[in-house]
TrEMBL record:
Origin species: Sodalis praecaptivus
Cross-referenced InterPro entries: Acyl_transf_3_dom
Location of this chain's protein in the cell: Cell membrane
Family, as annotated: Belongs to the acyltransferase 3 family.
Protein keywords: Acyltransferase, Cell membrane, Membrane, Transferase, Transmembrane, Transmembrane helix
All copies of domain Acyltransferase, residue ranges: 3-332
Example of a GO biological process term: enterobacterial common antigen biosynthetic process
GO molecular function, one term: O-acetyltransferase activity
Parts of the chain that traverse the membrane: 12-30, 42-59, 71-91, 123-143, 150-167, 187-207, 219-238, 250-271, 283-302, 314-336
Membrane topology (UniProt): Multi-pass membrane protein
Top-level division of the source organism's lineage: Bacteria
Official protein name in the record: Acyltransferase 3
Length: 348
């Protein structure tokens, strides 16, 4: 059964990722600007919610052959990954390079997204989701109602272990205490997105969406805002690299889980048709949006456009441009979906 609130969560998640990518230009101008840091962290917030939405369904799927199901998913993602890496290589090195100063990379260097900053950088997500697909056959059989206590304990333990690395970083930044725990134990050495993926599966198995009281809704909303605000404050103090890319961090997880539950319980009945159309293209929107954003090489776009829209303020411009990029990406996906072959590359 389709759950439209999950589709809405995915739509919102992708939009927030786009907001984060547009923000990079402004963050480079003012690295300590609170609003720009908040907008940049919204991208991580969106990534966490997308992992949770994926786990919500995948860890509760009812396929009889779990390996074949996971293998086919991973194979399709791998094919799409190769295609879009090749596309962005041509896009960066031949199209954008024709009118901007883009550093040229050979293809083998370009596909190493960890060391090569390019407009394909956002494709790191596909690498991580392939890993999670191959863990799926092992994890799926643990996600049964009789194992609630075990799942609760394991997820809690992983959550604590994951954040030990951040405790070390805080002690190092605040008190100058050197690292004492071997990196092999820390979640930063493990599979990206695993904790959020498990949390999504846990909520899918044990949490029944229902109408929440005003007091509970308000409390969860305040918790999410407070946790996210604290994340941004600490980011402003210690720099964007302190938390960025560490999707398992306590503040991000608390705010994302709170909003995820609130949206899961939201009523979207009147928007079901629109959510259905856009929701079927969310992954495609994620894959193609950097055509319009050019996160790494798009400074010339904002340098040209932003002065004409200063009445919006930098933050208004960020959210409006992100919305336009989201719409343009959706329309491009609609066009690509007319081809059966291309449709396989944007809807996995």
């Amino acid at each position: 059964m389709r759950i439209y609130s999950i589709d809405f969560i995915k739509i919102l998640s992708i939009y927030l990722v786009i907001v984060s990518h547009v923000t990079l230009y402004f963050l480079l101008q003012s690295p300590e600007d609170f609003g720009a840091l908040a907008a940049r962290q919204l991208g991580q917030f969106g990534v966490v919610m997308f992992y949770m939405a994926s786990g919500y369904f995948l860890l509760n799927n009812r396929h009889s052959d779990q390996f074949s199901y996971a293998y086919n998913k991973a194979k399709n993602v791998g094919i799409a990954l190769i295609f879009w890496l090749s596309f962005y290589y041509v896009y960066d090195n031949f199209f954008i390079a024709s009118f901007t100063e883009v550093e040229h990379h050979d293809f083998l260097a370009f596909i190493n997204l960890d060391t090569c900053m390019s407009d394909a950088s956002h494709l790191w997500f596909l690498f991580s989701i392939i890993n999670l697909y191959f863990l799926l056959p092992l994890l799926r059989f643990a996600f049964v109602k009789t194992q609630q206590k075990m799942l609760t304990n394991v997820i809690a333990a992983l959550f604590v272990i994951a954040n030990v690395s951040l405790v070390e970083k805080v002690l190092n930044a605040a008190l100058g205490i050197a690292d004492v725990i071997h990196p092999a134990l820390l979640m930063s050495s493990q599979i990206t997105g695993l904790l959020s993926f498990l949390l999504g599966g846990y909520l899918g198995l044990f949490f029944q969406p229902r109408h929440l009281s005003g007091r509970l809704t308000g409390g969860m909303l305040l918790l999410a805002i407070a946790s996210f605000t604290l994340l941004v404050v600490l980011t402003q103090r210690w720099g964007i690299d302190f938390f960025y890319g560490k999707t398992y961090n306590l503040f991000l997880q608390v705010s994302a889980v709170s909003v995820f539950v609130l949206l899961l319980c939201s009523r979207v009945g009147r928007l079901e048709k629109m959510i259905s159309h856009v929701g079927s293209k969310t992954l495609g929107i994620y894959l193609v949006h950097n055509i319009f954003i050019m996160e790494i090489n798009g400074g010339w776009i904002h340098h040209t456009l932003y002065p004409k829209f200063r009445f919006l303020s930098a933050y208004g411009y960020i959210f409006c441009y992100s919305l336009l990029a989201f719409i343009a990406s959706y329309l491009l996906c609609c066009l690509l979906s007319q081809s059966r072959w291309l449709n396989k590359l944007i809807s996995l």
